Every structure is written in structure tokens, then in C-alpha cells.
Amino acid sequence: MPARVDLLVFEWAPRLPGGGSGLGVVESTLPADQRQVWAERLERRVSVPPGGAGPSTCYLRYGDQAALLHRFPVRDVHNRWASSTQVLVGPPSVITMRRAVALRPDLVPQRFGQPADGYPRSWADASDPAGDLDRAARLHRGKATVMVAELGRARPHGWAVRAGDIDPRALLWAIAACLGDMEFSTRETEVTDPDLPTVVFVDGPPARSSVGTARHWVDLGAATDLPGRDLASAADLVETHTARRGGTGPRTGDAGAAPTAFSLHLLMLAAWWAAVAVLLTVLSGR
Fold first, then answer.
1. Torsion angle in degrees (nearest 10) through CA of 43, 160, 133, 69
2. What is the pLDDT of residues 108-125, one digit of tens each?
3. Inter-residue contact 48 to 17 (CB < 8 Å)
4. What is the dihedral angle through the alpha carbons of 61, 65, 71, 77, rounded to the nearest 10 degrees?
5. Rounded to an integer, what distance in angstroms lies between the CA atom of residue 138 and that of residue 135?
6. How far, in Å, CA of 224 to CA of 147, rounded?
7. How big is the chain by its Cα radius of gyration, in Å?
8. Alpha helices in 103-189 (DSSP H)
9. pTM over 0.85
10. Cα-flanking dihedrals φ and ψ of residue 89, to 5°?
11. Where are the beta strands (DSSP E) in 163-271?
């Protein structure tokens, strides 16, 4: 039986369903009691990060439920910058880290008015295929290797990452393939909130002097001091799980599958060699 997936939409409104004005739930497929629970859980994550950050995504886990946030800057009725955030809520077997990474921040998924059976097609349509993300991860395999090696170490307060001009999704795709699902957020502008996800990609310079943060900073523009053996192991993982054949972990169908043309080529090559072997056997028997 398909798993139920629900939608919440957070926007600025002069009059919210629960009273008052401001950023709150304006649409939802959840029952009223569950809508309130999720509104309270997500209230500190639904705003576009301040300081001029653009569209971003955030992936969170709450026990047996996962939430995928698509945060998009818009103008409110007073022409001020505000947030329009859509949130998918459902089981982590459906709302996976891979799907969260594949979702394009610059595309706004089409809303739906009833609970979805499984991952919504409109969100899959606003996502990049797995093959494209594999290629992006391979393009930045050096930085992806550093991230996989770094995240293999014990950092109880999580990581704050400055990736420069690299799309964080290329690195997060490699992380998900090599290490499994973990919470993340992109285009954050401050890291002092202890309730931020495990991995936070930060716009701007690494604020190593930020008061109140115990996160470990990773500046991918600087040389790493990780041990060579850790980097070698991480490099093997990245190469294996982002290989051209598509990786060994579970793929979301909407994020793309292993290239069928490549598989067909292998089958044709195998058939050709089989024919050659038969011909050689016949000739050698004469």
C-alpha cells in the first residue's frame, strides 16, 4: 500500500487560520491537530535564511517521519522580502535524503490539495535525475571525498560547511550515496542555532568566531588536514557510489536510474564475444 505524504504551505498572511498575522500555515492536507504539531516543529526552519540567501532546501527527521522543506523568497503585500515554503511530510522510506537533494531549489513544485500516495509527481518533476547528480558528484569528487571523510568522524555538534561556488547538492548526493540519510540544510547564513540540522551549508565566509556555536567548520576552499588513510577510504566510496553505472544504493525512480543505453551496450558486447568464442571453437575442431 502506498505511503501517505502530506503537504504544508507556509507564507506570510494578514490573517492566519489560527489567528494573528505573519508567516504561518496557509494550506495543508493534514488534519487540524497534526497541522498544529508540524507548524510548531517547523516554525524555526520555514523562513528563507536572512541576509540575502536565495532558494534553499532543508531535510529533517522526526522519529518515524521525515520533512522536506522547499524555501523560496517572494515579495509580500508590502513589497518586502518574505518566504513561501512548501513542506512534504511522510515516512523516511519515501521522503529520503536523495529525493531531498534531487529537488531543485530554483523550481517551485506544483501544490496539491489531497494527501499523495507516495512521492508526489509534481515534486519528482521539479527534481534532477540521478545521472545528472552522479555526474555533478564526480565533477567535484575531490571535495566530495573530503566531505565523506569528514562526516565519517565523530562531531557531536554537527558540521558547518562553506563550499564556495560548488552546488551543495553535488556534495550532498555523494554523502547520501556513501553514508546514508542525514539531516541537512543549504544556504544558511548563521549557525548559532543548536537545533539546525546535522550538516549545514553556509553562504558567506566561515564564521569561526561565531559566538555560541560548537559546530565543526569545514572550509572546502582551504587545504584539509584529514589523515591520508581516511581520504583514501572516502575516495573509494565516492568512486564506487557515484560510478557511471549509477551506484549500489537504492535509487528513487524519479531521480533517475542506471543508463539503459550503457547496459544495452554491455549486452551487445557480451553477445559478440560469445559469437566469436563459438566461431573459434568450430574452427579449432576442423
1. 0
2. 999 999 999 999 999 999
3. no
4. -130
5. 5
6. 10
7. 22
8. 121-125, 130-139, 141-151, 168-179
9. no
10. -130, 130
11. 184-188, 199-202, 216-219
Q: How many Cβ atoms are within 10 Å of 123's Cβ, its own excluded? A: 24
Residue 120 backbone phi and psi in degrees, to 5 = -65, 140
The C-alpha cell at 57 is 532546501
Residues 244, 139: Cα–Cα separation, whole Å? 12
Which of 168, 173, 165, 150 shows the shortest CA–CA distance to 221? 165
Residue 234 and residue 232: Cα distance in Å, rounded? 5
DSSP string for residues in 7-70: EEEEEEESS-TTSS-EEEEEEESS-HHHHHHHHHHHTTTSSPPTTT--SEEEEEEETTEEEEEE
pLDDT in tens, 159-204: 999 999 999 999 999 999 999 999 999 999 888 888 999 999 998 6
Residues in the chain: 286
